[in-house]
């Protein structure tokens, strides 16, 4: 396992060899899910390696921490420097970055004020849902597990504990032979994928579920909404009933790991033509264009390593 990972990890202010970046078994987070984290990609662009929306991802990390009263002992600039350092020190360019902060050792009550440990790891990463997924699309099913209701666990925090829900949804889908699972919200309306936001296409317009549908409001989702609107594609954030999945012209998922992944069938029903549709392909072109220089990054989303 160890050899799949790059040699260096940043932890609590210093770069360490992979094997030394450890946490104690009595860490609060291990028992209670009290961690917050980010998933960020760096890309090899014509102008060198760049981290996609690093500042926005780190801002979300601080927002997640605030919700759980975790005060990170580093500034956003210090963590941004740590992210860059981990990419450089490991000689990476196209990679996945994982900053994580957790309640560590030093108190075991649920409301204990433990020290907050912080680490940043990085590793090379290709398409998350399989190499063919970006072109041919994946299959998906609607999960028998619902997302947590908004007054239970806040979906807007990217916290470790939330991913128990994601694991149930993803594992059930894969056990049943599907590429990914899609969850309904406690309202019974569509929420999102196990670890991805969801877009449906009707008559050339994009429809996506709102923050009130217990989603993590993804940074990729925001990027795609921005790129689409700039390109003259209408985007509507709205409550979406499950059956619209079967009636949409196109459906795709998005996220840092999933990027823009078409869905070709849901619950065994073909979506549209059963392959990436015209709008999905345009969105992919705009999104991946950011990294090959074909889409002008007028927003400063590419932050050089
Ligand atoms: N929803 C969930 C539950 C996720 O885990 C992710 C991945 N972080 C997303 C949506 C997409 O978010 P982003 O585009 O910021 O990666």
From TrEMBL:
**Which InterPro entries does the record cross-reference, listed alphabetically?**
Aminotrans_IV, Aminotrans_IV_CS, Aminotransferase-like, B_amino_transI, BCAT-like_C, BCAT-like_N, BCAT_family, Class-IV_PLP-Dep_Aminotrnsfr
Enzyme class (EC, first level): transferase
Please provide the record's keywords in A-Z order: Amino-acid biosynthesis, Aminotransferase, Branched-chain amino acid biosynthesis, Pyridoxal phosphate, Transferase
- EC number(s): the record gives 2.6.1.42
What name is this protein filed under?
Branched-chain-amino-acid aminotransferase
Fetch the SUPFAM superfamilies from UniProt. Answer: D-aminoacid aminotransferase-like PLP-dependent enzymes (SSF56752)
Pathway, per UniProt?
Answer: Amino-acid biosynthesis; L-isoleucine biosynthesis; L-isoleucine from 2-oxobutanoate: step 4/4; Amino-acid biosynthesis; L-leucine biosynthesis; L-leucine from 3-methyl-2-oxobutanoate: step 4/4; Amino-acid biosynthesis; L-valine biosynthesis; L-valine from pyruvate: step 4/4
- Output the Gene Ontology terms for molecular function: branched-chain-amino-acid transaminase activity
Q: Which family does it belong to?
A: Belongs to the class-IV pyridoxal-phosphate-dependent aminotransferase family.
In terms of domain of life, where is this protein from?
Bacteria
**Cofactor entry:** pyridoxal 5'-phosphate
Query: Per the record, a Pfam family?
Result: Aminotran_4
Q: Which reaction does it catalyse?
A: L-leucine + 2-oxoglutarate = 4-methyl-2-oxopentanoate + L-glutamate; L-isoleucine + 2-oxoglutarate = (S)-3-methyl-2-oxopentanoate + L-glutamate; L-valine + 2-oxoglutarate = 3-methyl-2-oxobutanoate + L-glutamate
Coiled-coil regions, chain positions: none
Described by its record, this protein's role is as follows: Acts on leucine, isoleucine and valine.
Q: What is the gene called? A: ilvE
